[in-house]
Predict the 3D structure of the following.
Amino acid sequence: MNKKLYHIGLLSLLIVCFTSCKEVLDIEPRQSIEAETALDTQEGIEAAVNNVYSVLKAQVLYGRDLLAISECLADNARIINRAGGRFFNEGSNIPNAHFGGWATYYSGINQCNLILKELPSTVGVNDAFRNSIEGQVKTLRALFYFNLSRIFAYEPKVEIAQVSKGGVPILKDGVLTPDQITYPSRNTVNEVYAFIYQDLNDAVAKAPNTGAPSRITKAFAQALFAQVALYNQDYTLAAQYATDALNARVGTFVNNLSYITAWRERNNPEAIFEILFRLPSESLGVNNSLQSAYTTRVSLGSNTLAGWGAVVPTDAFLALMGANDIRRQLYQAGVNRSNVVATECTKFLGKAGNIYMDNIPVMRVSELYLIRAEALARSGRDENQARADVNQIRTRAGLTAIESSVAGTALINEIMLQRRIELAFEGQRWFDLKRLGQDVVKTTGNVPYGDFRILAPIPTSEIIANKNLVQNANY
């Protein structure tokens, strides 16, 4: 099938279709396909899939905002106004200062839809190749929809019916030309999760076993399924897929002596899937990178001023870690900027060998232990295993193991405490509070769970362009 792929700007849900997304992405040669290249060859399919992977590097996704904005909105971090006002509004939970990325997510989804449509008719490839591509692409599409849903909508079991406007639109058909654009309404939250489940069921069956951490594998599809099920409070399924992913042994649970050095390596050995930044040209720079958001240093051993260091841990968060907790070593004093020296998170410090660029773990082995522990504890199915899992995290950090007397609510609280510490500044805290329907308590002003600021606003341009799209409440 000799169908061309056009670069199109959509008035509604899509910004980029396929071809050269240069203003959004800067990717390696052969990762994008030219307009005259079709999806009817193996090379075309591979280039198209690489292009979808590159969407994940965008600033509004894993390049920065999915991690940094999550920390700003929640209660682990405070904002130092020494970066030209960067992140100040997000840290104060000012209305409309929130996550973005709507168009970028739907661009990635559109690319996935186009690949899945053409894949069955691609010539010169075998079933193993088709299965591998389908598994990867459906995992990517599930990841896009999962992030869209947790940013712009409620989770199924904590949806506030009187104010919820639904989930996000589910688009299953790729768009090549402007005349193919549709203007869908929002699907229900449950419909979105059902669609994600369907994609991940297919992905688990077809994703390849090898390729980690730079490529999606069956283990990551299982890990993502565990996370999605946890958000859906589907605790039996969450525990099952967390166990399956752990048994795949993709990623290494590092020991106490290796924990800090793991964060200094180019590829974190715990990563099950990681967003890779390889080329200096992929750096988002001092104004837009994750490193600059968190730290003022060029590197651990240098006192040269580099980043803005605007998003830093609160004293209350740092106090959660005792003197013997090895994770405290990931937080150290930065460089004087604007007459301020602050303790900063050093998880992301240009370890790829170039300043302002880091490989970003989407999921680590440690999170899988915490997912399984939480799922088992909340369901009451196996508290012994839940204790064993959280003790993996505690003892590796240099803490004593909790005893068998820690059960019920006390056990859940301990698991959530370790999750808060272990995954801090990795973009989890805001979403953990949100998925559990909990208030955000912070010195800049609390955000009760029923507050409209829990959800991000859909961009006004999308609401104007699509009359069927309903804005979130009070925006």
Remarks:
- Residues 127-152 form the longest helix (26 residues).
- The mean pLDDT is 91.
